[in-house]
Amino acid sequence: MATPAQQPPQSSGGKRKGKAPYVQAKRARRCDGGGPRQLEPGLQGILITCNMNERKCVEEAYSLLNEYGDDMYGPEKFTDKEQQSSGSEGEDDDMEAALKKEVGDIKASTEMKLRRFQSVESGANNVVFIRTLGIEPEKLVHHILQDMYKTKKKKTRVILRMLPISGTCKAFLEDMKKYAETFLEPWFKAPNKGTFQIVYKSRNNSHMNREEVIKELAGIVGSLNSENKVDLTNPQYTVVVEIIKAVCCLSVVKDYMLFRKYNLQEVVKSGKDPSQLNPKQPVQGGNGKEAKLESGDKSNQHHPAEGTNNQQLVPENKELGQTKPRSETQVVNEGGAKPELESQVTERSESNENDLS
Fold first, then answer.
1. For 45-74+103-268, CATH number?
2. pTM of the predicted model, to two decimals?
3. CA-CA distances (angstroms) from residue 217 to 98, 209, 224, 325?
4. Which part of the chain is the THUMP domain (predicted)?
């Protein structure tokens, strides 16, 4: 009878049972006082992609956002602290001292909520989400890219793309429809109008269909104003749809093609003019129509009757333009088979002259 009495103390002395409370307490500390620690619906911020170094990406994002944020909105201020101190003015001295002590203890936890920029776990590799408070992320990111585009000064090494996120919702089609109906009104509801394109990207999500999302969002934009039209070459607005796990991030940005799809590394490069990038823009977009254009361009490379003849006609037209009027060169450009016939005639004539000589 003595042996069963000795078994409970052996099981209670294990380390696994004592480890669980510490793990729960550690998780609670991460969530207390810091606001949302993960990407969730109802947030605004900036979605940043990097190259295999998320910690360095966060550091560069803080320095860059604070630099331009101070220029646009002034230095950061902690308004909630002033409200807490003003609320205890009418109380007694003893109560004021006790409240001040409590407020001092809570400062460390509330300070993270008051920060203008705070990193949040995005739920995907090489992706960083910076939550913003009291800032319009679209204007801030556009200001950063516009300055870098003009100065051509490289200020980051790890950050690749920087996309503003004006709102987030659940990544389900019905939820996205309800949210987009009110979200897209400031840009596309009458009397507002403009040309647009939709760029879609999904990470760690398999239940969303790309074509269905694009069709539904395009239908919502058309229902807000019938004058809104799709333009894949030079749109006024680009609707950015970024899905990560069960969260959908939405935004409407300007100059998406001019700023090289909001890529900080490409904007700094002194490349071609934006007008020269128009033929490549449909290939760089994100909706279904652009994918069809990509397949069409690849098919033209395999069919010499469509692709190679057009490339060969370019230098010939320059030479013909010096001796022949423009009307003749235009006729040659329209008919793909005529330049080949002319070249064959010239080759035969040259061979006849050689035979006669």
1. 3.30.2300.10
2. 0.61
3. 54, 13, 11, 49
4. 147-254
